[in-house]
Amino acid sequence: MLSATLLVALLAAFSAGFASGLTGFGFALISVPLFLLVYDPSRVVALIGVLAVFINIEVVRDSYRDVDWRSVLALLPVALLGLFVGVKVLIAVDADYIRLGAGVVVASALLL
After folding, report:
1. Which of 21, 30, 46, 56 has the fewest CB atoms found within 10 Å of its own CB?
2. What is the pLDDT of residues 18-32, one digit of tens each?
């Protein structure tokens, strides 16, 4: 029998994968709030990182010919800097505040 934790995680992964396959984005937007219901933020970051690699392999495989590689190379250093800062925040901030922040962002997006 499936535990409630695993059931929520499976629902999150399916919903996020469906949205990503349909739109090309949104995997983390959908899965992170649901994963945060059942896992601590550091585990969610690890899960999202690994799952996003596999999900995005298919997106890249399907559309790499359409990519503007100059833009990718220009944006990559700034994205990596943001990643570094985000990891530092994850380490320094209490998990409950991260959950609250994610909830506020999702609720705000829903209202918009």
Report:
1. 46
2. 888 888 788 888 899
In order, the DSSP letters of 19-60 are: HHHHHS--HHHHHHHHHHHHS-HHHHHHHHHHHHHHHHHHHH
What does the alpha-carbon distance between residue 48 and residue 54 come to, in Å, rounded to a whole number? 10
Q: How far apart are CA 74 and CA 93, in angstroms?
A: 30
What is the domain count for the chain?
1
- Tell me the C-alpha distance between 86 and 84, whole Å: 5
Q: Which two tokens stand for residue 61?
A: 């495989």
Look up tokens 């996003």; give the residue.
52
**CA–CA distance, 91 with 70 (Å, rounded to integer):** 33
Q: Express each pLDDT in 84-97 by its tens digit.
A: 999 999 999 999 99
Confidence of residue 108 (pLDDT cuts 50, 70, 90): confident
Domain span at residue 106 reads: 4-111
